[in-house]
Amino acid sequence: MDLKKSLKQEKKVFSVKTCLRASSLKQGSFFLFWLFVILISCFLFARVSYAQAEWDISTKPLARLGMGSVNDIKFSPDGRYLAVGGSIGIWLYDATVLPPKPITLLEGHTKGVTSISFSPDGSLLASGSDDNTIRLWNVESRESIATLEGHTDDVNSVSFSPDGSLLASGSNDGTIKLWDVENRECIATFEEYAYSLTFSPDGRLLASGSFETIKIWDVESKECIVTLEEPREEVFSITFSPDGKLLASECYKTIKLWSSMRYIAVWLLRRVVLPAGSQ
User: Fold this and answer.
1) Is residue 229 part of a domain?
2) Domain that residue 217 falls in
3) Total structural domains in the chain?
4) Burial class (CB in 10 A: 0-12, 13-18, 19+), 92
5) What is the pLDDT of residue 22?
6) Where does the pLDDT of residue 274 fall: very low under 50, low under 70, confident under 90, or very high at 90 and above?
7) Measuring CA to CA, how many Å separate 72 from each of 9, 20, 42, 69, 247?
8) d(Cα 79, Cα 83) in Å, to the nearest integer?
9) Which 3-state string (H, E, C) describes 219-269?
10) Quick one: average pLDDT of 200-213?
11) pLDDT tens for residues 215-232?
12) Residue finishing a domain among 40, 59, 78
C-alpha cells in the first residue's frame, strides 16, 4: 500500500512540474512575441522619422499654387505673372509678391490644359488642351481672344517664336502646325508627332521632340533639315541655349546637349541624382 501511495504522489508531482514547465514555455513565447512586435514598431517609427527628416525641405514650400492637377507652369517675360495650366484651366498669379497671389482662373477649354506659352512681350498667353484646340488669351483683360482649331487630337505643346509673330503647336494627331498669330491662321503643317517644341533664339529654326527622334525644321522653307535619333526614348522637353549654339533634350532617364553647329551629342547625363545631404 505504501508503494502504491508513493507512486501516486510521484505522479502528482510529475504532473505539476509538467504543467509548470508548459506554462513557463507559453509565457516565454508570449513575451518573445510582444518583444518582437515592439522592436518592429520602433524600427518602422525610426524609418518614418528619418525619411521625414531627410525630406524636410519639401514639407516647407514658400507657397502651394493651383487646384487640380498641374501640367505646365510659366512665368511671364517681365516676371509679373505666373501661369499654371492644369486639369481645370489656367490659374494666373501675381508673382510680384510671396506667396504669389491668385488673380483669376482662365476658363474656356472643355478639357485639361496641357501646355502654355507667353508671347515675348507678355501681352498674350497661348494654351494647348486635350480638347484639340489652342486658345489665345489677353493677359491684361484675362479674356480669351481667339480659338485656333485644326488639330484632331490632344495638343501636347505650344510655343511662341522669339518675335511673337508665329505660334507652333504639336499634337497627338501626328502633326505640327505653324500659326500666324495676327491673322489667327494656320500657315504650315508638318507631318510629325510632337511632345515638345521650341524655336531657336533667332526664330529661323523650330525643334520638335517625339518618340525616338528630334527634328529640326527650317521655318522659312517649312522643311525638315536634320533628324537626330533617340533610340527607345520619348523626348518630353527640348530647348535651345540663349546663343543658339546648343540644344538640350530631356528623355525619361537622360538629358543630352547637342551642338547646333554639327548636330552631334556633346554631353550626356543619365538619371539626375542629388548627393546625400544636399539641400
Assistant:
1) yes
2) 70-270
3) 2
4) buried
5) 47
6) very low
7) 88, 72, 41, 10, 21
8) 11
9) CCCCEEEEEEEEEEEECCEEEECCCCCEEEEECCCEEEEEECCCCCEEEEE
10) 95
11) 999 999 999 999 998 767
12) 59
Phi then psi for residue 192, to 5 deg, are -160, 135
pTM value? 0.73
Residue 275 domain-assigned (yes or no): no
Cβ partners under 8 Å of residue 184, min gap 6: 136, 146, 148
Neighbours of 276 (CB within 10 A): 6
Q: 55 and 164, same structural domain?
A: no
Calpha distance 116→127 (Å, rounded): 4
Residue 195's nearest CA partner among 134, 271, 253, 114 is: 114
Cα→Cα distances 121→56, 76, 180, Å: 38, 9, 16
Rounded distance, CA 4 to CA 12, Å? Answer: 13
Instruction: Tell which residue, 141, 216, 138, has the closest CA to residue 176.
Output: 216
